[in-house]
Amino acid sequence: ALRCYRKAAEIGGLKEAYSRCADFYYSSGNKKSAMALYKKASEAGDVSALNNIGLMLENGYGDVAPSIETAIKNYREAHLKGDKNATINLAIYYLNVSVQFHVSQYIFLG
Prior knowledge:
Oligomer: single chain
Radius of gyration: 17 Å
Low-confidence stretches: none
Number of helices: 6
């Protein structure tokens, strides 16, 4: 982890360091550490970290169950701050909700 922080510190400020380390932990399977670092990154101003938090919450991680409502809240906040990936994730979510609604209507009426 120390090597990860040093490497990240070379490329930018604190938010970049937190995000790079979170990416490292996520890719190595340590999701709880990744979540903690994404939260620190978002607190330091990294908008993309909000989107990553949303992704982890949408799918659940470790022993943490998925939380769609909280994921959408994070996507929306990141979207409003200009994160394009969060905008895409919001669009995908609302598209899926819309499709599910129409399918259930068809089955019910069908």
